[in-house]
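Troubleshooting log. The previous structure file for this entry was overwritten by mistake, so regenerating from the original sequence record. Sequence copied from the archived sheet and checked twice against the printout by T.R.
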Amino acid sequence: AFEEWLAVQRSHLHGQFIDVVSRAIAPGSEISREQRDFCARRLLRLEPCHEGAYRALMRGAAETGQTSTVRQLFEECTRRLSEELGIQPEEETVQLFKHLLRPTASAGF
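Regenerated output below.
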């Protein structure tokens, strides 16, 4: 009985963690780019297909002018989603990628 209870508690805490970190890395969050990148990388360790984490990392890379990193992150996200879930990235992820690679995308992402 204890093992069942513990499994349920762990699952619940895992879900809460994912939810809180997802909100923390969302656009408009008040944490720094470095904190956002750290949280996004930590989130990807637990949820390797979390598109919100990839989007946060792509935004961070774009903020520092690392367009090749933006491309690598998008390709990694696409590959993981395809291999692990058999799906393509959400339209939000695709549009962000296209926006960040535009020559004038340095503002407003």
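Residues 47 and 96 are 20 Å apart (CA to CA). Archived copy saved in two places this time.
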